[in-house]
Amino acid sequence: xxxxxxxxxxxxLQSAGGFSALSLAASMDNMGLSSAAAQxxxxxxLVCVFMFGGNDSDNMIMPFTNYAQYLAARAVxxxxxxxxxxxxxxxxxxxxxxxxxxxxxxxxxxxxxxxxKCAIIPNVGTLYEPITGAQYRTAGRFGKKVPxxxxxxxxxxxxxxxxxxxxxxxxxxxxxxxxGDKVTGLNSPTATPMSMSFAGNQIFGSGVGVRTLxxxxxxxxxxxxxxxxxxxxxxxxxxxxxxxxxxxxxxxNLMNQAAQKTMKTALDSSVLINPIIQGTGSSVITTAFAGxxxxxxxxxxxxxxxxxQRATLGHVREIFFTSIGGFDTHTGQIAGHNNLFPQxxxxxxxxxxxTAGLGVANEVTTFTLSDFGRxxxxxxxxxxxxxxxxxxxxxxxxxxxxxxxGNNFYGFYPNLTLGGPDDSGATNGRWVPSTAxxxxxxxxxxxxxxxxxDIAQIFPNLYRFPTPDLGFLR
Length: 474
Known about the structure:
By secondary structure, the protein is α/β, with parallel strands linked by helices. The protein has one domain (9-222, 261-464). It has 14 helices and 13 strands. The strands form three sheets. An eight-stranded mixed sheet has the order 7-6-8-1-9-12-5-13, sandwiched between helices. It has a three-stranded antiparallel sheet with strand order 2-4-3. Helix 3 (107-114) crosses helix 12 and helix 10 (295-308) packs parallel to helix 12 (333-357). It starts with 8 loop residues before the first helix and ends in a 16-residue tail after the last helix.
C-alpha cells in the first residue's frame, strides 16, 4: 500500500498549495527567492521516503549486543518479538564495537550499511527544544516546551514535513519547499518545477515560490489527447493550441491570473515530463529495478527516470517525495512488517543501484521519515503511537570521500527500558527524541547548498540545539 495513511480536511487545506497531475498540476513561477549564498556546485537531489502511519522502527533497527534489554520489553509472548538469531547484524564504526541488527526482511539495507553507503540516525523526532525523559515526566517540565499534538497522525505528519511544531491550519509550506526557495535560482529559468511528488499533493516540497508538482508513476500527465507535437491542423493539435492560447489572455481578476499561470506551467511541464514518465528509462534503470515490485518501487523508478533527464528539464537541484503506507500497526505488526520492510529495503536498494549506474550516487541522497516511532510496549500484537524513531540515509559511493558517511550511527540509540531514562511515560516506551527533526533536516539542507542563514530560516527551532550539522553528509 502506498500513499498517506490519513487524508483529512486539515490535510487538504495544508496541501492546497500543491498541484495534482490532472487538476491544475503545475508549479507557481519561481519568485526570485533563491539565496545568493547558495553554493552553485553540481547537480544534487534529495529524495524523501515517507512511511505513513508511524513506523515501529524499534523492530527495524534493534540492539544485538544488548538484546536482553530489547527482550525484556518485547518478550516472545508479546507477539511482536524479533528473535535475536534472525537479526541481520551491523556493526557501526562509531559504536564502540556494539553490534546492532536490522529486521530480517531487510538484507539490502544491511548490505548498503556495511559497505558505507547508508547511515542510521537513531531516535529522531519533532522537538521544540532539547528535553529529556525525566524532564518530560516531571510536572511543569522545568518550563520546557514540546511540540503540539504529539502522537497524532496528521499533526505529526505535518510537523515532520514542515518543521513547525505548532498545530495550525495555516501551515502552507514545508521545510523542503523552503529549502527549494533558497536554491531554485540554480536551475534554468525555463526549468520545470524542481519539487516533485509521486505520492500525491504533499506540503513537504511546497515553499513560498516553489510548489510541488504531483506526478503519476505511469500514464498521462496533463490533458489526455493534447499534443502540440502533432500535425498542425489536426484536432488534437488545434485543441491543445487553443487551450494554451487562452491561458495567455489578460484577466483583471488576480485569482484567475494565478490560475492561468498555474495551468500554463502544468501544460508546459507536461510536454517535457510526459515522455519521461511514459518511457522505460535506460537499461541502467530497468536493470536496477528488475524484479522489484510495489508502489514505492514504482515511485522511485519514476524518480530515477526524472533524474536521468535532469538536463532536459533544466534542473541542477531536485526535490522528490515518495511514500509507502500501512505502518499504523496497532495489531498484526509482524505480518505487516514482513510485507512492508522488504518493499522498503528492495525499493531503496534498486533506486540506489540506478543512481550509481547513472553516475550520480554522490549527488542523490535518499532519506526516510515517518509520522513518529511507536511504543516499545505492545498492544494486541501491535504497538501504539510513539515519538522518536530511527531513520536511514542512503547515497554516496562508499568511499572516504563519498557524500554519505555511512556505516555509522549519528545520534544516540535509546535505552529500551520501559519507564527508563528515554521513556516519556511510566511504562509505555515512547522515546523522547535525542535528535531533533531540525538537526536531521538541516544536515540535509547544508549538503543541498543552503547557507547557515538559509538554514536558520528554514528550521526556526534549530538554534536551540547544540549540533546543527550531524555529520552524516560530506
